[in-house]
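Protein 1 of 2
SEQ + STRUCT:
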Amino acid sequence: MRILIVGAGATGGYFGARLAAAGRDVTFLVRPQRADQIRRDGLRVLSPHGDLALTPSVLVTGAATEPFDVVILAVKAFGLDRALDDFTPAVGPETMILPLLNGMRHIDMLTDRFGEGPVLGGVCAVATTLDRHGRIVQLVGGLQGLTYGERDGALTERISALDKELQGAGFDARLSTTILQDMWEKWVMLASAAAATCLMGGNIGEIEAVEGGADTALRCLAETSAVAAASGYPPRGGYVAGTQAILTAKGSKLSTSMYRDMQNGLPVEVEHIFGDLVGRARALTVAAPLLEAAAAKLRIYQNRLAPGV
């Protein structure tokens, strides 16, 4: 199975490197500067699960290509518009598109471009970052999983073939018949944690340590859960309990990638994580004042970034 990984950043680079190291037929679609870096230095992963140093197959954006069997889309949401144009030539009649973005907005964008058929649902769980040398550094050793499935929950021949391809590649791979539920639950957890950390300006342990901090974090969770429930995907009880524990853990160093990006002056996925969620809340008449505050704060932050950042 020919696999195209769109992006060789913290997420796509990690899972793509694991797949390539396991002998899968993997090509990375990257921009010229990243392609030059990989050709010069290789693709390097620093991980508690084992370091990797590879020289993978690279396809530069804009180069001619034939359709791939699978396109794994692993870009930041604010880069999705450009990425759609980049990988469109790689999508043929039988191509599966597995997106690993957060939220749900990207599903609408993908189906608008390619139709309903090619687009799968996907969730990734990994804490990684790129260092200044372009190396992928895994931050939390226990998180490295992919969940995927047909959006209607069907166990099709193609999703079974993809599942077989992803198994045994050095990370947890799980075929789900409830992938939309899984995607909504991750959105609930991510948006709750991002709202808490970005609004209050600290990691989970710092938030929990101050009066009212944990209660505010739990109110963020209540708002995101209410939007999910009104949309037809109420978070399951065990997931809610687990997220509550994460958001109120004493001494936790956990932050969110959105908070880290904001601290480092990088663009954030405000529209896909908060803008879309707030829009759905308003359409469904669900009160979400903390989510609205988070969206406003992050939009102000985004507007302050230099043009083109």
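Protein 2 of 2
SEQ + STRUCT:
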Amino acid sequence: MKNSIAVIIVTYNSTKWIANCLRSVFKSEYPDKFDVVVVDNASEDNSVEIIEKEFPEVDLIKLHENKGFVGGNNVAIKEVLRHKYEYMLLLNPDTIVAPDLLSNIVKVGDRSQVGIVQGMLVLGNERSLTNNMGNAMHYLGFGFVKHYREQVSDWDNREPFEIGYSSGACMLIKREVIEQIGLLDEKFFMYHEDLDICWRARLAGYKIMIAPKAVCYHYYEFNRNKEMFYWTERNRWAVLLQNYSLGILLMLGPILFIIELMVIIYSTMSGWLFYKLKSYVWILVNLFAILSKRWKVQLNRKVSDDQIMKHMDIELKMSEVDNDILKQIVNPMLKFYFRIIKGVL
């Protein structure tokens, strides 16, 4: 059915959130058919019992192991592809959607060349403030939230616009995008998978948009810890190695080396050096898989790196980090080097 949509939610010990999330989804004012698929990643609480008891209409897939955010979503996406849905909406369990979210986000998805759309993420506990109006994709592979804790009222009348990449917390993907570029990359398990799929979609010629009128309340908690540092650093390098052309990687070599030294110094001072070194080990162990994926991505490429870099951020402006070294030393250096790259291109 045209415009039919499957809402995909991956749960793992999500008792605190899942009932309110599902209630909001089923209150959606959407004119066409939509269904809800929940994949449970072997929860150890009573998430499954809540879903089975209160939401029998949910297509519940119970896994016997934790496949992570990526693996869980891929299980559901494969199911959705078999049933010929036009769209799939990846949704975090710690969200509540506005009644018109599905209608508004699909309107943007229907536009020509649009492949992925993010809803406007609003802080669940402070609903006058934004959580995420699109993520920044930095040219060195870093990803971070943009427009954090801004007034929601400032965005009420904004038209949809292109963003660096969509947050996986509320991400609409067209069926044709998955058919063309493939599933989420399961090597990532979690973190940077949303950056990667948006980068690959853009390489295939699709636009990545945000729909400001598609409101999703997100009970977001910033979590910066050693494990997260490990996942994001290893996955950042995998994304870079897979998605950039060889020429750009060679040109970026000097600045990547400098920033890498800075990351090592930072991780040493923070007591996270083990996790940084662990990320290098993972890259080496998985190098063949990374290069195999790279071959597929580059084969599917329709857009040049010059065009991709127009949608990338030059400076690092992370919402939870206010650092004078970043502002006065790192960012001016990053801006200078980016100008050199653009000049060559």
